[in-house]
Write a structure and sequence with these properties.
Layout (H helix, E strand, L loop, with lengths): L2 E5 L2 E3 L5 E8 L2 E12 L6 E6 L5 E3 L7 E6 L4 E6 L8 E11 L5 E5 L3 E5 L2
Parallel strand pairs: 2-11
Antiparallel strand pairs: 1-3, 3-8, 4-5, 4-9, 5-6, 7-8, 9-10, 9-11
C-alpha cells in the first residue's frame, strides 16, 4: 500500500517562508510526476507546481519566482520551498504523485492528506 505524508505547514507572516515536504512510502516500484496543489476555502483545488521524474518543472503564474519545487528520488520525496508568502497563498496544500506500486504494472494517482498553510500578520 502506498501513502503520501506531507509536513511543514503552519502559520507565517506575510513575506515569510515555509518549506513543505511530501514523502511517499510503501511498496513503490517507481514514481513518475510529483506535484503540489492547493485549495483555499470556497475555491477549487488548483495546481501550484509539479515536477517530472527527470526534473522538469511547471509553476502556476501566481507563484512563479516565489516558490520552488524539487525532489529527491532516492528518498521518494518532493519539496516545495515557498518564499515571499502572501495572504492569498493561504490554503490547504496537497501533494500528488503518480506511482507504480510493486508488483503492479500500472501507474496510479495518489494524494496526501493535506497540510494547512496560513499567511497572516
Amino acid at each position: 500500500q502506498v501513502q503520501l505524508v506531507e509536513s511543514g505547514g503552519g502559520l507565517v507572516q506575510p513575506g515569510g517562508s515555509l518549506r513543505l515536504s511530501c514523502a511517499a512510502s510503501g511498496s513503490i516500484f517507481s514514481i513518475n510526476a510529483m506535484g503540489w496543489y492547493r485549495q483555499a476555502p470556497g475555491k477549487q483545488r488548483e495546481l501550484v507546481a509539479d515536477i517530472t521524474s527527470g526534473g522538469s518543472t511547471n509553476y502556476a503564474d501566481s507563484v512563479k519566482g516565489r516558490f520552488t519545487i524539487s525532489r529527491d528520488n532516492a528518498k521518494n520525496t518532493v519539496y516545495l520551498q515557498m518564499n515571499s508568502l502572501k495572504p492569498e497563498d493561504t490554503a490547504v496544500y496537497y501533494c500528488k504523485a503518480i506511482i507504480r506500486g510493486s508488483p503492479s504494472t500500472v501507474f496510479y494517482q495518489y494524494w496526501g492528506q493535506g497540510t494547512q498553510v496560513t499567511v497572516s500578520s
